[in-house]
């Protein structure tokens, strides 16, 4: 396996760094399929009955709640594997890591296909949830870490390119999965088993392309004509490196943990309930018979949010290269808090346009938060262990994936049980989200440069080539 070792993937002097973004996108567009996994939920819950039009399945069919565990387990293992294997990723390099990610993520589809054929939910969860989730974690952090090393002059742009791909993976994965299930509908599993096999094979080819294309820069490399600026007193971009174990002990790490957790919590809960929320807040009962938001229109709203989520990852991370990471998050939290506070008023006004526009901006900042945080970590801790540090920070994502939906769904249910109309049941939740973003604003405001006692020995001065 020597070809996969880090020392065999060091770029030569004539290799261009602009080949790294396609390699990163090949992986992130593939693993981003997890955001489109919901297209399999209903077919998986009708494997025995074979009737997708029935409101309930046959005896022995899995419930939607049980099927939903696959997605939750995958996200949990994404965060957990990122934290556990972060040091290994930095030590072994991106080629071996992305190769392992491809085998795990795509192998998970093959195991899940067997689980579908045997009608074994634990086997499907183990395949797409556990194996696939670990593949997600390795495939998520390794390209980002490598891009930051290749683009020290534009880290926000670099990470935005890759993480935009992760956000857009569902735009490919959802229609691909739907089309393949229709093509293989007669395979005895409503097309799910055959679709898993085909998608696993297709994604394997793309991810292996990314793994074999990727390179790491030599230790003495820097972009032609670029010179790191000396760190000014109080400057927010460090020229020093902090190793992962030391970073874990700094207040900056935990402040940024809070920043990511609060930004994601506020966005992910709404993203998971967007379709139901817009239909209940703008129903026929509210707007008049025939004027309410239909299920088809709500699906379009969810698609629009996905586009803004994806575009925000690139636009906001690129903006952060010009205005700085800390000011960018100030905008996220201040503007987000105002919009969440205003959303109930937009609903009471019956203004669908303002409601949609407000959530599109919120979702762009939700996606932008994911893409900007790696560059923020690079500013604080340097490039030496940024992948491992990023991996540990992603535990904030795992926690937010539990807290956000629980807040939205829990408060909605309690409000409805208290007799409050469904159209108004989200007001309390929106005010809580606004309050969380105010806390995030304070946490971001408290971020300062890392103290010198945490610095590692700097590397030798860099030589220049591109």
UniProtKB/TrEMBL annotation:
Keywords: Membrane, Transmembrane, Transmembrane helix. The chain crosses the membrane at residues 64-85, 97-115, 121-141, 162-184, 190-214, 253-272, 292-316, 328-346, 352-377, 389-408, 428-447. It comes from the Bacteria. Residues 24-452 form the Major facilitator superfamily (MFS) profile domain. InterPro entries: MFS, MFS_dom, MFS_trans_sf, Proton-linked_MCT. This is MFS transporter. It comes from Deinococcus seoulensis.
């Amino acid at each position: 396996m020597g070809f996969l070792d880090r020392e065999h993937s060091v770029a030569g002097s004539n290799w261009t760094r602009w080949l790294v973004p396609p390699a990163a996108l090949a992986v992130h567009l593939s693993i981003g399929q997890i955001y489109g996994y919901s297209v399999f939920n209903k077919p998986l819950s009708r494997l025995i009955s074979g009737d997708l039009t029935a409101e309930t399945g046959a005896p022995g069919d899995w419930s939607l709640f049980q099927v939903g565990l696959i997605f939750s387990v995958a996200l949990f293992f994404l965060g957990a594997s990122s934290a556990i294997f972060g040091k290994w990723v930095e030590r072994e390099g991106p080629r071996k890591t992305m190769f392992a990610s491809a085998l795990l993520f795509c192998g998970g589809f093959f195991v899940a296909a067997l689980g579908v054929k045997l009608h074994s939910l634990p086997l499907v969860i183990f395949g797409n949830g556990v194996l696939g989730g670990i593949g997600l974690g390795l495939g998520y952090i390794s390209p980002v870490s490598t891009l930051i090393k290749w683009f020290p002059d534009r880290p926000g742009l670099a990470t935005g390119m890759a993480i935009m791909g992760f956000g857009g993976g569902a735009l490919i994965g959802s229609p691909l999965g739907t089309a393949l299930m229709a093509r293989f509908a007669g395979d005895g599993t409503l097309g799910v088993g055959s679709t898993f096999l085909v998608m696993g094979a297709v994604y394997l080819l793309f991810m292996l392309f990314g793994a074999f294309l990727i390179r790491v820069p030599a230790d003495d490399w820097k972009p032609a004509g670029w010179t790191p600026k000396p760190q000014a007193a109080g400057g927010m971009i460090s020229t020093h490196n902090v190793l992962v174990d030391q970073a874990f002990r700094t207040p900056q790490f935990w402040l940024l943990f809070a920043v990511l957790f609060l930004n994601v919590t506020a966005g992910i809960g709404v993203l998971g309930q967007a379709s139901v929320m817009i239909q209940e807040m703008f129903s026929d009962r509210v707007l008049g018979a025939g004027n309410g938001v239909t299920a088809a229109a709500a699906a379009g709203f969810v698609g629009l949010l996905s586009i803004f989520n994806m575009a925000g990852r690139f636009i906001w991370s690129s903006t952060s290269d010009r205005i700085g990471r800390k000011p960018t998050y100030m905008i996220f939290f201040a503007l987000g808090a105002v919009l969440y506070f205003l959303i109930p008023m937009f609903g009471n006004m019956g203004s669908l346009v303002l409601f949609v526009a407000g959530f599109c901006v919120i979702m762009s900042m939700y996606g932008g938060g994911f893409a900007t945080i790696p560059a923020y970590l690079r500013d604080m801790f340097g490039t030496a262990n940024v992948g491992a540090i990023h991996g540990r920070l992603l535990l904030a994502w795992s926690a937010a994936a539990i807290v956000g939906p629980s807040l939205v769904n829990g408060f909605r249910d309690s409000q409805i049980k208290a007799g409050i109309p469904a159209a108004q049941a989200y007001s309390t939740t929106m005010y809580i989200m606004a309050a969380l973003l105010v806390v995030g604003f304070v946490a971001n405001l408290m971020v300062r440069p890392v103290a010198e006692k945490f610095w590692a020995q700097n590397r030798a001065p860099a030589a220049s080539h591109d």
